[in-house]
Amino acid sequence: MTNTEALKQNFILILGLGALALIRPLMKITGLIDLIGQQFGSILLTILISLAWLLIVVKKNIQKPILILVFAGISYAIFATIISGILSPILLGQLQGPLTNPLGFISVIVTNIIWGLIVGGIALAIRNKVKD
Question: I need a labelling partner for 63 at 20 to 30 A (CA). Which of 12, 17, 29, 80 fits?
Answer without folding.
Answer: 80
